[in-house]
Design a protein that fits this description.
The strands form four sheets. A seven-stranded mixed sheet has the order 7-6-5-8-9-15-12. Strands 1-2-3-4 form a four-stranded mixed sheet. A two-stranded antiparallel sheet has the order 10-11. It is globular and about 60 Å long. By secondary structure, it is an alpha/beta fold. The two termini are about 20 Å apart. It contains nine helices and 15 strands. Helices cover about 25% and strands about 25% of the residues.
């Protein structure tokens, strides 16, 4: 696969009629020096910011799924409090001097947080021109060296670079062949590299998975929700040498909720109004498992 050719083809996505006006507005942003703080809120401040311009641009880029971000007087209260997941995972990795990839990186919130570790290389993969434009908006002020590729996990094994650490958070359940995806992640790692993965799971000791009929929590492209033993089997079949459960959590309204910065519904609309332990379809409500996997250099 010719990644450079694909890269050039996908740059054309930024000229789509719904994206082109956003890119034009992006080019008109003032270039100002800013102070950036990478806490739970990625905060960008400068006395020279045009707050009216910033707010208007941020509103044009809705919906904001990941965050939160603060740019001058504009607080982008994203649907997901992504700091909850990041802080949960933070004790389990160290990225200094490493080559790092974030698969399904959205607008780059996690990567901006990772800058504090001073990785050697930080690359985000996400085939969404809107999320790429959100990233470029934030990075216009941050001025980081993060690389954002309009590519998917299926391109990872053909990429010019192998990675010491790969994050793949909230992607696996969107794939109709999860083992094939795990193999792609495996091939994208350096020998003894690590994958930090999270996905939905259901309770149970049996090696089985829920296969939603048409949707799960109103999400149509959810194909398999495994038990943790089934997930382990998938990972071992993909070639990983170890499977370590880092954390488990139940998604609730403190982490995902409707705000003025999104359009449409959120978690409260996806759960049974009379029994929040179930989705509207009657399946077990979303729970996440976070795991660390190591690539065996012998394979």
């Amino acid at each position: 696969m010719d990644i450079e050719k694909l890269r050039q083809e996908r740059k054309k996505w930024l000229t789509w009629k719904n994206i082109a006006p956003l890119r034009e507005a992006l080019q008109n942003l003032e270039d100002v020096a800013c102070e950036v703080t990478y806490g739970d809120v990625v905060s960008i401040q400068s006395d020279s910011l045009d707050n009216t311009q910033v707010y208007a641009m941020a509103k044009m880029l809705m919906p904001w799924r990941k965050g939160p971000f603060e740019i001058g007087e504009t607080y982008i209260d994203s649907e997901w409090r992504s700091d909850v997941k990041y802080n949960l995972l933070r004790p389990h990795f160290q990225l200094q001097g490493k080559k790092v990839a974030d698969i399904g990186c959205n607008n780059g919130y996690y990567m901006f947080r990772m800058l504090e570790d001073k990785p050697e290389l930080l690359v985000g993969f996400d085939p969404s021109p809107l999320y790429k434009t959100q990233f470029d908006f934030i990075n216009h002020y941050v001025k980081s060296d993060i690389v954002y590729e309009l590519l998917g996990v299926e391109h990872l094994e053909f990429y010019e670079q192998k990675f010491d650490t790969i994050f793949c958070l909230g992607v696996l359940y969107h794939r109709s062949d999860p083992v094939a995806m795990l193999k792609s992640l495996y091939r994208g790692l350096e020998n003894k590299g690590e994958l930090i993965l999270d996905t939905f799971y259901i309770d149970g000791e049996e090696e089985m998975a829920l296969c939603p009929e048409s949707s799960y929590s109103k999400i149509p492209n959810i194909y398999f929700v495994p038990t943790i033993p089934a997930l382990k089997n998938w990972c071992m079949r993909a070639g990983f040498a170890s499977f370590e459960v880092l954390e488990t959590s139940k998604t609730d309204a403190s982490e995902q909720r409707k705000t003025e910065w999104i359009e449409g519904q959120s978690l409260e609309d996806f759960l049974d109004q009379e029994d929040e332990s179930k989705t509207v379809e009657g399946y077990p409500a979303p729970q996440r498992v976070y795991v660390k996997l190591i690539k065996d250099k012998k394979k």
